[in-house]
Amino acid sequence: MSRLLEVTGLRARYGKIDALHGVDFHVERGEIVTLIGANGAGKTTTLMAISRARPPDGPRVKAGDIRHQGQSILGLAPEKVVSELNMALTPTGRRIFGNLTVGENLSLATYARRDDKAGIKRDYQRVYDLFPRLAERRRQRSESLSGGEQQMLAVGRALMSRCSFLLLDEPSMGLAPLLVQDMFRALQALNREGMTILLVEQNAKLALKFAHRGYVLSTGEIVASGPCAQLMDDPEVKKAYLGG
Ligand SMILES: Nc1ncnc2c1ncn2[C@@H]1O[C@H](COP(=O)(O)OP(=O)(O)OP(=O)(O)O)[C@@H](O)[C@H]1O
Ligand SMILES: [Mg+2]
Q1: What is the mean pLDDT of residues 213-241?
Q2: So what's the pLDDT on residue 13?
Q3: Would you list the domain boundaries of the chain?
Q4: Residue 219 C-alpha to ligand 1 middle, in angstroms?
């Protein structure tokens, strides 16, 4: 069977600046794969190239391919990535509407299946079970949520859209340690239910503990890869990303 996601020789640039110089990696269905690397390594660029959810000044793919179940998705319109491939990117590309409540933001993500009332109700419950904070704040305007709570809402919305492949850009960023634990526990639960996760993190220690396999990205190139346990023992990786 073909791989869920396969990226080969991916080169991307912003104007004349090369950000990715030929990146290769893959994700199998059901896996948690992490992409770690320092500031500016090209992690966010990689996710934007895959999801096609990019701002007007976003990266352009110059060479290489991105295949989903064997089919190239480079020609696909951004909105089709979510609707047809069941892939969601968060929080980059999250469109949380600040003047709507938490509940209303979740509900927007169900528009495409608005007739499935029972299913939608179950999904609300699932999001609120995973993130009790969102349940407490369901009638609160989203702009008044903390940064961490907004991250949860972004993940919650991805779930309401029934995605089966979650692309996460630094879900730990700006979260207090306890909230980071909540977030990763919720993500682990989702993975156990079958959700595939591609996680981008600067917090390499956390990411390598959480994921099954990892890739180290350094200035636009993959410089190491393997099962997380192996990467954690790699002297180079230790020195550069795990604080010695
Ligand atoms: N809109 C842009 N225009 C021009 N260059 C950009 C743009 N966005 C990113 N870059 C450049 O592309 C390279 C990769 O950036 P990217 O955002 O992918 O890094 P990152 O690994 O996500 O870093 P961080 O950990 O800081 O989020 C960097 O050198 C960055 O300066
Ligand atoms: Mg980034």
Answers
A1: 96
A2: 94
A3: 1-78+206-244
A4: 10
Ligand closest to the CA atom of residue 38 = 1
Residues 160, 108, 33, 152: is their CA dihedral positive or negative?
negative
pLDDT band at 28 (very low <50, low <70, confident <90, very high): very high
pLDDT for position 92: 56
The binding-site residues of ligand 1, defined as CB within 6 angstroms of any ligand atom, are 14, 17, 19, 37, 39-45, 57, 202
- Atom 7 of ligand 1, nearest CA residue: 14
Mean pLDDT along residues 225-243: 94
CA of 126 to the centre of ligand 1 (A): 34
Query: What is the DSSP code string of 55-93?
Result: -TT--EEEEEEEEETTEE-TTS-HHHHHHHH-EEEESTT
State how far the Cα of 73 lies from the Cα of 69, in Å rounded to an integer. 10
**If you take atom 24 of ligand 1, which residue's CA is the nearest one?**
39
CATH pick for 1-78+206-244 out of 3.90.700.10, 1.20.1560.10, 1.10.3720.10, 3.40.50.300: 3.40.50.300
